[in-house]
Design goal:
The protein folds into 2 domains: 118 residues, no CATH class; 98 residues, Transferase(Phosphotransferase) domain 1 (Transferase(Phosphotransferase), domain 1). It is 34% helix and 21% strand. It has a 5-stranded antiparallel beta sheet, with helices on both faces. Strands 10-12-13 form a 3-stranded antiparallel beta sheet. The N and C termini lie far apart (44 Å). Bound molecules: adenosine-5'-diphosphate and magnesium ion (MG). The site of magnesium ion has 3 residues, from loops.
């Protein structure tokens, strides 16, 4: 019973039985009034207790990082709420860069000083074994490069890339991102997967087609 019911729970999708909680309960680590007031003004009073992580108060969330808590809303969007103890005073810059990364990042629906309301990605974090999505990830990284967005955390894609059932990849978390003349997202992704020589060649030739051809040769040989 125990093991199989745990498995079932792991696969559970949000539904009618998913607990609904007051948004106050996911303002973390302490109930900051200005965060609460802004969410309330934006019409967000309740969220779902759902996701792989549990806060100390028992509420489940999609994720937790150094600047935000990410929760699922009742209309199945992902809501990143600024942590009350975040070193960043606002999420607005991050949200604007994320919006510029549309098609690569989860789509941004709304944002404010203390929140980003975005597309929910039902998927899992990638690992070093996920070489089947590497060509797609390299294309997305190239898209960021061509839009002048330096993500800055793609040397650790395991923390910031989700893949869904269909094999689509999404690059998350523009907290450290900036607009720059020569972004190095492709180079970072290749380096993370241990393809250091290919990363170096790419830095020299700057030809994404060449990289994709080489990846095809490596993994379908
Ligand atoms: N749109 C989303 N859909 C599903 N899960 C998400 C989404 N955005 C973030 N998450 C989850 O929340 C975690 C923390 O989000 P992130 O933006 O990295 O916060 P931080 O800036 O605090 O590091 C992510 O690693 C991911 O697991
Ligand atoms: Mg993060």
């Amino acid at each position: 019973m125990g093991y199989s019911s745990n498995l079932a729970r792991a696969k559970e999708v949000p539904g009618e039985k998913t607990p609904v909680v007051e948004v106050e309960r996911v303002i973390y680590p302490n109930l900051d009034r200005s965060i609460f007031e802004e969410l309330k003004a934006g019409g967000i009073r309740k969220v779902l207790s759902y996701g792989p992580l549990e806060l100390p108060n028992g509420v489940r969330v999609l994720g937790k990082g150094k600047t935000g808590i990410v929760v699922l809303t009742e209309d199945l969007k992902a809501l990143k709420i600024r942590r009350a103890d975040s070193p960043k005073e606002t999420l607005e810059i991050e949200a604007k860069i994320q919006a510029r990364a549309e098609g690569v990042a989860p789509k941004v629906f709304d944002f404010g000083r203390n929140f980003i309301l975005m597309e929910y990605v039902s998927g899992r974090h990638i690992s070093r074994e996920d070489v089947d999505v590497l060509p797609k990830l390299v294309e997305k990284a190239n898209e960021l490069d061509s839009r002048g967005i330096q993500h800055d955390e793609l040397v650790r894609p395991w923390k910031n890339v989700l893949r869904d059932e269909g094999g689509n990849v999404y690059i998350l978390d523009y907290d450290d991102a900036s607009i720059r003349p020569n972004p190095r997202n492709v180079t970072s992704v290749l380096t993370a997967f241990g393809l250091v020589d290919l990363a170096k060649e790419y830095s020299r030739v700057k030809d994404i087609k060449y990289v994709l051809e080489r990846l095809g040769q490596f993994f379908h040989a």
